[in-house]
Design the sequence.
DNA sequence: GCAGAGTATGACAACGCTGTCTTCCCTATA
DNA sequence: TATAGGGAAGACAGCGTTGTCATACTCTGC
């Protein structure tokens, strides 16, 4: 493995000049820059991260903290983040965070002390954990998170159009003629997802329909709770003709209970999910749902962390129309 | 952030002694060891990884390379690996590997040059990539992989009971009275998964049933190919009464085509998958499948890498009986 | 009572890089 | 022509650890 000294010797310059070239620092003549670049090429030199970290301040590591049980969500974001890291010369260190109490902080302290990552990346629902955020602020760690709610100084918060997405779902169902629509809402801990319900409510209101509280049931963001919530909704004296579940797992639960109750989807009941998980495609019938550009979101967070600015693009949440929605009966 | 010097000063010893205590090196008196330990506690000292890496040889980093499109599989293993890493004071750096050709090696080279990980962790189908393995061997990087086939010196290969699992599925279906059974086989690139078919064939043979080649269709390990393969099987003049798909995505495809063809599952057709992905639970009907202890497998690989020995436990693959299998019709 | 063989401890030089400070030289201005 | 100003390049000292070697002290066994 060649070191900076080898490059310097080959190019006939000091190691400092090589360092300047590598770091794109100013005040290097074009001539020397070329010689150094050639030497780097020839030796296939790559700077050693550990040495860089030790001497400079940066570690070129970003910690990815997650406790989201949905592997496709986590995986999508992680994939985008990891490839962006690669492009920028960074690396992504993953840390599953136990949901339990104080263990989290000890974990964070250990991580920081050992690795000194240049930034920390939080995804929901961790991105809403106020104590975690505060601990991070105390450690003066740049932190970027997706769809966080609590505003915290010194952290980038990549906003997602949750509300607009909820609105989009409402418009779709209204367009199909549905008027009595049920909602399976997220638990309070998922504050970003709760905005989906807000947007949905707005969409209904725009069509002159108000969201009946009796038709709004809270779920736990998982499959079993979708079954329970769906059953509560469908056993109502006046059941809804469509149900919007705020994530796919719960929507799949609604689908299951509909099957069990002998309802036909979409003839008797329309169902919309959220997330476009793999399971939504393979379900029967395939689920109409909302796709988030997970990879892009992961990339945007890394950009924010590395560039130190949160000029995230506007993400496009997309309604994926499949076979679980149809026109309202009658 | 306290350094080793602070600890040494507080304990009244040399930094080297602190280093010895931290690294559990021999030849330190109990008395000094206690004093140093106390000082470490008091200052909340954690060794700096970058400095360790630079001075010693180890980086306490393990690279996790994956190109598996199934997020629940990747995520499960990654989760197990990451928490074991944490217990052992290591960190897991993730690298999604593009499937494309030579880009992979450049990626590997960059990774190694920058990070010098102490080990590399490969999961299928990457664990079967002979060129990747060879490159790794050239770089003298300890490497551990799950369910690899090609034997490569200097790499740990954590074996999984694929064959026994295939046998288990056969026994189950035979026990239900099925005799004409179709198989959706994996592509040649997934050699570990192909053993599932071997075991399955053995199981049938043990019951005096031979696996008809016409009933064995190759899929691409994804949902669409499951639909195609399932259709080929079900449109046969004498269709099978049960189908074993070698992963869940394909099994879900079989389920879908069965629905489309108006077949009832499990009354008209029994279906078995493999992997116990989240989608298999939320499918309609819930899919009988085989669960792998993904987290344990991830942990075992980290253990092998860190301890330098591959005394992996025997993993228990488990048949998860749900509602997609029933007795053979009449 | 003394060589020989540990055992415990520390001094010091790496490891590969970046930050700071210094030196040199070239140009613009009075 | 003298002088300041600034760009280009390098010397050198860390960064926080571990490895190597030196040193002092403690046992053995004869």
Sequence:
């Amino acid at each position: 493995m060649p070191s900076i000294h080898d490059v310097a010797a080959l190019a006939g310059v000091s190691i400092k000049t090589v360092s300047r070239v590598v770091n794109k620092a100013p005040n290097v003549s074009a001539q020397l820059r070329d010689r150094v670049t050639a030497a780097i090429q020839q030796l296939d030199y790559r700077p050693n991260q550990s040495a860089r970290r030790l001497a400079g301040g940066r570690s070129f590591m970003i910690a990815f903290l997650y406790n989201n049980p949905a592997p496709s969500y986590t995986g999508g974001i992680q994939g985008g983040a990891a490839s962006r890291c690669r492009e920028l010369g960074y690396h992504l260190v993953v840390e599953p965070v136990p949901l339990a109490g104080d263990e989290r902080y000890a974990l964070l302290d250990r991580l920081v002390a050992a690795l000194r990552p240049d930034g920390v990346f939080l995804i929901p629902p961790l991105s809403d954990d106020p104590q975690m955020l505060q601990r991070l602020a105390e450690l003066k760690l740049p932190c970027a998170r997706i769809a966080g709610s609590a505003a915290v100084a010194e952290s980038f918060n990549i906003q997602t159009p949750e509300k607009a997405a909820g609105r989009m779902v409402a418009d779709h169902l209204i367009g199909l003629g549905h008027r009595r629509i049920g909602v399976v809402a997220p638990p309070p801990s998922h504050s970003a997802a709760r905005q989906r319900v807000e947007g949905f409510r707005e969409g209904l209101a725009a069509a002159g329909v108000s969201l009946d509280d009796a038709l709004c049931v809270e779920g736990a963001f998982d499959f079993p709770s979708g079954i329970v919530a769906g059953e509560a909704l469908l056993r109502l004296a006046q059941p809804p003709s469509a149900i919007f579940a705020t994530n796919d797992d719960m929507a799949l639960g609604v689908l299951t209970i509909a099957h069990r109750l002998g309802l036909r989807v979409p003839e008797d009941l329309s169902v919309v999910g959220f997330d476009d998980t793999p399971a939504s495609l393979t379900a029967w019938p395939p689920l109409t749902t909302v796709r988030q550009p997970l990879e892009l979101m992961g990339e945007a967070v890394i950009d924010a962390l590395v560039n130190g600015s949160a000029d995230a693009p506007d993400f496009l949440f997309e309604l994926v129309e499949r076979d679980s929605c149809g026109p309202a009966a009658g």
